[in-house]
Design a protein that fits this description.
The chain is 28% helix and 26% strand. It is built from 17 helices and 37 strands. Strands 9, 12, 15, 16, 17, 18, 19, 20, 21 and 22 form a ten-stranded mixed sheet that branches. By secondary structure, it is α/β, with parallel strands linked by helices. The N and C termini lie far apart (105 Å).
Length: 761
């Protein structure tokens, strides 16, 4: 919001400078220097909103002495600029008089002919003191004609500071539409878009970063107040489906996670339940629901960032298309852009190119995105075919919201106050109603961050009861204007995102981890939905102005994704004080193999690979392995084929990968001991083996020959003594010097078998 610094004029010397405020709960002007006392004038009510000729106007408000001096003879006076404004262009051209000292501003002439048009105060106005005023202005005192038009009116404060003459020390202005004696020529079909958005607070599951969403859902909160508008008025709700997901979780129960990791029970379960019931009831009453891309992403920032972030815009739109039916049956898939984000390269890219895109999708753009000289005319229809030659789509069907309807004014420092918004809306629509024939259509959409407490939007909704207004929704406006007008997309700067470079870097890290996890799964569609939701929430435009909350959210979600990736890892039996140590491997010879085991501790089937690389040697060669599928809880132990040309210790790392070769989790350190033999070594080994086997062969041959000779001698001796065997069955065996076994001779090769298997063989 602009602030006015009022300064002393050279001619007035010690004149006071006042920051005027012109609306209910209007924000005070910027504090003046200590030597320039300031008085704040606030208009709290103005009625009727659009008087007819002959009707008196009642203005109520207050004056607050924000200076350190006392004003003598204080009084409040009604004032008017009698220039009739007959077009919306004239309204936009009203001078703010920012650079004119307060005492020299004369565009709003004081009314003093009737005592009801000014009010003297009984006592001097002391510092920090506030006094109320009520001014009733008879119609004749305005001294204007009876034609339909808009006038700038207001209240001025006059008083006498010490050592000075009486001066005007403060003023507040507003717009007064006048309905002339001739009836308005046409109704104005008006669609009020009510944004229902909140920055992400869900960290995952039942965990929430804070209770700000629950506070906003309460009846006195902004989301509670905005939702209530659907009870008495037909409105179009612009909703972030990610916020609906969060509210549903609040209703189920949740905890708030503090900075130290401690959790406290959430207190918003009841208000969330009530809010959801009212939301469903509002939809049942016919209020249109337009669902934004999931997470309400910073479209311009993501597209400007290029790959890989720009794909998240299409993912957010597809996510809304696929899940919207469950969240809000009969919803409209929508896109809302404003400022530089409405340039053709963004509008063309974000309006299509995603799964589920249809011609029924709503592309809503604020007219403030165009410069005043190139702004489309919106006095008849807001439906346009916007040419976007620099975007993927060359022409985009677009609904343009009339930003003039929410401009407020004419004093910038109080332009967003509810009363000023109501008066501006009434003034613009009255001029449209008086400016042509045939029904006119307008769409009014409060810009992002414009109405933090919902009071100004509530004032807009109340204006839907004006006699020339016919309330409808955006779908009704589109249906009433089947033949779109044409215009070119607005120009914009080189970059137009709202997220910082640090925030975009955090999104990139989270996107990389999420993509790696999805490519790790055999079925990529089995990726847990909470991971996709967390990634899209990290792109939210709602983080603008909350950098620390955005950083914490991204860090927590990145840690959660890495924790899932860490469940697919190498098994290492060597653990020291809870930490995994390096895996030791011996590699003997020029080639060898060693086993490594990968385990899958996730709940899904995964496809994994393994890559071994050296950290200090270039001669380590590893044979590439194919990937393998592991079910939940399964292990895989491939044998790694490796070779090294030199002896020594090789420091290497083993990295689990997904099917695309992307690292999964952290690498595991390996210590490979390579033991190689040179040519001389191999000759010595060969000679030793030849000597060993040659000696053994000679000894075996001699043993066999000796045994055969002994066998032949034994056979002859047995023949010669056969006649004596009947008398002495225990005669010693001459060949073995032992008794014969029950008179049965041994098998011919028995001694040979015993010799070969013997110790001496």
């Amino acid at each position: 919001m602009f602030r006015r610094r009022l300064r002393l004029s050279a001619m007035a010397g010690a004149c006071l400078v006042v920051a005027a405020s012109a609306a209910t709960l209007g924000a005070p002007a910027e504090a003046a220097p200590a030597d320039e006392p300031a008085v704040q004038v606030t208009i709290d009510s103005f009625g009727p909103t659009a008087p007819k000729p002959g009707q008196p106007v009642v203005i109520k408000g207050r004056v607050t002495n924000t200076s350190s001096v006392t004003f003598e003879e204080p009084q409040a006076l009604a004032c008017i600029d009698r220039t009739r404004l007959a077009s919306t262009t004239a309204l936009d051209a009203i001078s703010t008089e920012q650079n004119i000292p307060m005492s020299e501003r004369d565009s709003c002439r004081n009314l003093t002919s009737d005592e009801q048009t000014f009010q003297p105060f009984d006592q001097p106005l002391a510092p920090k003191e506030t006094v109320d005023f009520t001014l009733t202005v008879p119609w004749k005192e305005w001294r204007i004609n009876d034609q339909t038009g808009v006038y700038v009116v207001g209240v001025a404060f006059r008083g006498q500071p010490p050592n000075s003459s009486r001066i005007m020390a403060g003023r507040a202005r507003t717009l007064m539409p006048v309905l002339g004696k001739e009836p308005l020529t046409r109704p104005v079909n008006t669609a009020l878009v009510v944004p229902l958005r909140h920055r992400p607070t869900q960290l995952g599951g039942k965990n929430f970063a804070n209770d700000s969403l629950a506070t906003s859902l309460a009846p006195a909160g902004s989301l509670g107040r905005l939702l209530a508008l659907g009870r008495q008025h037909q409105v179009t709700w612009l909703v972030d489906p990610a916020m609906l997901d969060e509210i549903r979780q609040l209703a189920k129960g949740y905890v708030v996670v503090g900075e130290n990791g401690q959790t406290t029970p959430g207190t918003g379960q009841a208000v969330a339940t009530t809010w959801l019931k009212e939301f469903d009831a509002g939809r049942a009453r016919g209020n249109q629901v337009v669902l934004l891309p999931y997470g309400d992403p910073d479209v311009a920032g993501l597209l400007d960032a290029g790959d890989p972030l720009k794909k998240l815009v299409a993912q957010a739109r597809t996510k809304t298309e696929r899940s919207g039916g469950e969240l809000a049956p009969g919803f409209t898939n929508g896109l809302s852009l404003e400022g530089g984000a409405a340039a053709g390269r963004y509008l063309g890219a974000a309006s299509g190119g995603f799964t589920g895109a249809t011609t029924d999708d709503l592309n809503l753009v604020s007219s403030s995105s165009w410069s005043a000289a190139t702004r489309p005319v919106l006095t008849t229809s807001p439906v346009y075919d916007v040419h976007t030659p620099e975007g993927p789509a060359q022409i985009v069907r677009t609904v343009i919201a009339n930003s003039s309807l929410t401009t407020g004014g004419p004093d910038p420092e109080t332009a967003e106050s509810p009363l000023q918004v109501r008066q501006r809306f009434a003034a613009v629509t009255a001029l449209i109603a008086a400016g042509g024939k045939g029904a006119a259509s307008v769409v009014v959409a409060p810009p992002r961050g414009w109405d933090s407490d919902g009071l100004a939007t509530t004032a807009l909704a109340g204006s839907l009861s004006l006699p020339w207004i016919k309330a409808t929704d955006v779908a009704g406006v589109v249906a009433a204007n089947p033949k779109p007008l044409t215009t070119r997309a607005p120009a914009a700067a080189k970059t137009n995102g709202v997220l910082t470079e640090t925030q975009l870097d955090g999104i990139k890290q989270l996107d990389e981890a999420t993509t790696t996890m999805q490519n790790l799964l055999v079925d990529g569609n089995a990726l847990p939905e909470v991971m996709t939701q967390a990634l899209l929430r990290s792109t939210s435009s709602g983080w603008n102005g909350y950098p620390e909350e955005a950083r914490r959210f991204a860090a927590i979600e990145l840690g959660s994704a890495n924790q899932q990736l860490g469940k697919v890892h190498l098994v290492n039996a060597s653990v020291d004080r809870g930490l995994r140590k390096e895996i030791k491997v011996n590699l003997a010879g020029s080639k060898g193999t060693f086993p490594l085991t990968i385990t899958n501790d996730t709940d899904w089937s995964v496809r994994v690979g393994i890559v071994v690389s050296s950290a200090n040697r270039s001669d380590l060669k590893i044979k590439r392995l194919p990937t393998a599928v592991l079910g939940p809880g399964q292990k895989w132990t491939p044998r790694i084929t490796a070779s090294a040309e030199q002896n020594g210790l090789i420091r290497a790392s083993a990295q689990v990968t997904n099917a695309d070769g992307k690292p999964v989790g952290k690498p595991q350190e390996l210590l490979i001991q390579a033991s190689q033999y040179g040519s001389v070594g191999w000759i010595l080994v060969g000679a030793a083996c030849a000597l060993l086997f040659g000696t053994s062969f000679v000894r075996i041959y001699r043993r066999v020959r000796t045994e055969r000779r002994n066998t032949a001698a034994a056979t002859t001796a047995a023949t010669d003594s056969s006649t004596d065997s009947s008398t002495d069955s225990t005669t010693a065996d001459p060949a073995h010097d032992r008794p014969e076994a029950n008179g049965v001779p041994e098998a011919p090769d028995a001694s040979l078998k015993e010799g070969v298997g013997s110790k001496d063989g």
